[in-house]
Hints:
This protein is α/β, with parallel strands linked by helices. The chain has eleven helices and 19 strands.
Amino acid sequence: MPRPIEALIHTDALAHNLARVRLAAPDARVWAVVKANAYGHGIERAFEGLRGADGFALLDLAEAERLRRLDWRGPILLLEGVFEPRDLELCSRLQLWHVVHNEAQIDWLAAHKTQQPHRVFLKMNSGMNRLGFTPEAYRSAWARLDALPQVDEISLMTHFSDADGERGVAHQMAVFEAATRDLPGERSLSNSAAILRERLPSDWVRAGIVSYGSAADFPAHHASHWALRPAMTLRSRLIATQQLEPGDTVGYGSRYTATAPQRIGIVACGYADGYPRHAGTGTPVLVDGVRTTTVGRVSMDMLAVDLSPVPHAGLGSEATLWGRGPGDAVLSIDEVAQAAGTIGYELMCALAPRVPVHSAG
């Protein structure tokens, strides 16, 4: 029998979350963002739930090739553009759209020989200070692209740094609108947080973490507030139980000490599976659908949970580390991530290769 840990990818949840995006941005077309192997869910598995999107956005040319092999004939956008001139050959062959965020990429396009002009998204650095042309240089970059026979349509885009927080997007929108006034082209503005929290005029929205059922603005709002469903469940089983007496300790470093008689369960899941090592005592977990918490330090292959709220639990009981539990029980990945001092994005992407992954309805 294999070790009893597995991840389930819920294609129905992906489709549901995509529908929620369309409700929030009814006048926009939707990029389903599938970078980082669809945020750890697997492009091939996520595709079944997200194929209703208008296009797919990602970073890696190899992932774009995987989408084309799935017979996707719609738009694919390279969010960081090309990394060297020869990448443009593949863009031509696979009909990829790509972001342009620096002068070198314009130079490469100018030297590229192609029969089919490229669709590009010109990125502005409106305050994030990662990629993009400054507002002062933006029009000049647009003019250079517009003069190239290698370029067809130019779309305009930027990325928000604070859409999930109190600062919001107004300061960046003001910069973007001032610099693009009267420039033709479709706009791509909203990321996941802006889709849910703002109502911006955007021709294309970029649905990233929202597609996978995590709240981009957690803990201000829980995923249930936005009616999102978790697209990934990580679950395992109890492989042992222990009866503690007052003074007994649990795990490496004896980080947890029982203060009363207590029964605990040992779950076949640890940091080598992608569970966060820094998730200390008190991290939420479901056992047989009942909410309880971890105790002690997470080790490579195991972690311990308090069975006080689940007296009936025993060897073989199901432990839901995040996602859907038995019945209607749900444990948000955002809560687990918060307890570990990180975000749900990281937990999704950190799922270890040794964990079997299966598609589920």
